[in-house]
Amino acid sequence: MKFGSVDNPTEIDFTLPSDHIDTLRVLKDKPSDSTNVFVGCAKWNRADLKGFYPRGTKDELEYYSHQFNSIELNATFYRIFPPEQFVKWYDKTPDNFKFFPKLNQEISHWKRLNDDVKPVVDNYLYSAINLKEKLGCIFLQMHSNFAPKDFDRVINFAESWPKEVPLAMEFRHTNWYNDGAIAEDLYQLLEENNISNIIVDSAGRRDIMHMRLTNSRAFIRYVGANHKSDYTRLDDWVERLKIWKNAGINDINFFVHQNIEKESPLLSAYLIRKMNSELGTNLMIPNDDTNGQQTLL
After folding, report:
1. Is-contact 270 238, C-beta < 8 A?
2. Which Gene3D superfamilies does the record associate with it (predicted)?
3. Within 55-117, where are the H helices?
4. What does pLDDT average to in each consecutive run of 10 residues of the chain (297 residues)?
5. Deepest of 67, 118, 150, 207, by most Cβ within 10 A of its Cβ?
6. Where do the domains of the chain lie, and which CATH numbers do they carry?
């Protein structure tokens, strides 16, 4: 994930911004004993996650899904897979595994949510629903040049989205957030339609760190800089997630990217250890000694 990458991460202030004033309001304001926590990488293919798979691994997804409980499925951005492929993914993965697929680029980048996008969305969902209970939350990532001048398209898309299918949305044009009136209109729209407001933590784009939850799901796309600061940044996230858990958040979806993706499992394993220790979760640690594999950390 090259978005927001920088050459000199030591020059970046990675301090997490304070929560938006309305973030805690949308939570239940009481500690949650049943927060659903899913942590994973963006990809499972061997070419990106070099060194993660033991020699002789025949099926990468099958192995990955026994190390992590989720995947941010970016492959669906580039291609609308047929229903049969989703069935295969479903069958290869354990019962507690979940997929968080990205909406196809024809929807977000080519048609840009215009009036004739509905057939493409319907075709996508026709395939994706074959994940059944393993379908986590579908997410939409708009192009960085998609600006608030097309807010009417966002309204139509949000209001027409099938409410039984969880959705999260990500905006990258800075004007969605640096104009207070536009930002508040966006947050209200997402709240009213129970759509999660994705938070992207990337070195070069601190301007979109809105820290505004719009429902009881925190969907975080974390982009490491392949630098030692990646770990302290995750420490800060664990502290923030602890606050949200104590405020009653229902779902935490945290996906780790790297400019050099081979280190994503290392960061993810570190994050999971910290969550287990600080949030009281009991997530499996990837490549833990108990699984007979080399420990990542």
Report:
1. no
2. Protein of unknown function UPF0759 (3.20.20.410)
3. 60-64, 75-78, 83-92, 105
4. 71 93 88 87 88 92 97 95 98 97 98 96 98 98 97 98 98 95 98 98 93 97 91 97 95 90 88 96 78 43
5. 67
6. 9-291 (3.20.20.410)
